[in-house]
Amino acid sequence: LIALKIIWNEVVLMRALRDMNLPKFVFEDVPLFLGLISDLFPGLDCPRVRYPDFNDAVEQVLEEGGYIVVQMYETMLTRHTTMVVGPTGGGKSVVINAFHVKIITMSVIELYGILDPTTRDWTDGVLSNIFRDINRSVTISLGSCIHRYILFDGDVDALWVENMNSVMDDNKLLTLANGERIRLQSHCALLFEVGDLQYASPATVSRCGMVFVDPKNLKYKPYWQKWTQGRENEVGISAFGQSIFY
């Protein structure tokens, strides 16, 4: 019984190290990391957990042209802030019902609002308004689960994102210039879609779950399938593709 308990603890530790770190690595580093895991836990293996309903939904969405990954789902189960990182064309865009904020086109004042020093009048920003609205209490019927997301699309620059650090950590609080404090509720989460992290500070990165989307993982088949699906009415295209690549 003691031996089984020790093995189970090792399985839990190995899976935590593997599943929480694997999404962060670039294509070339994955085999190196898995090699280290094998050296640390020789002879120990644990198949990846399958989420039947979720996996079936993912496969259906992928057929319809969406891009959702199980790794991102698992990361979001453990973090309330997730960054999806990768170059253009890697498949970062995910099909979600989200508030989409084009942060690179706005100033800090436009995002968070401003307090007039003379009149003390408060002018709400785009992000502060959305953040307040999305975190209002929602009525959830029995058996249902509603999740709401704010999706930031653009560079993660310390100029504006430092104000979000208190939201990303365990405090989950956005403090505005007028003294208002808005708490991130359990049904809400933050998503960042960004090409790279060259402008992000370690303080910000350490507060987020990371999923790196590498185009090298896709290879050629998704692009070919997408191209042929858009030309289903053209005679011989599908059969031609099957005969050459499969």
UniProtKB/TrEMBL annotation:
InterPro entries: AAA_6 (IPR035699), DHC (IPR026983), Dynein_AAA1S (IPR043157), P-loop_NTPase (IPR027417)
One Pfam family hit: AAA_6
GO biological process: microtubule-based movement
GO-annotated cellular components: dynein complex
Stored Gene3D superfamilies: 1.10.8.710, P-loop containing nucleotide triphosphate hydrolases
Dynein heavy chain hydrolytic ATP-binding dynein motor region domain boundaries: 9-93
Gene Ontology MF, one: dynein light intermediate chain binding
Superkingdom: Eukaryota
Name this polypeptide is given: Dynein heavy chain hydrolytic ATP-binding dynein motor region domain-containing protein
Provenance organism: Pavo cristatus (Indian peafowl)
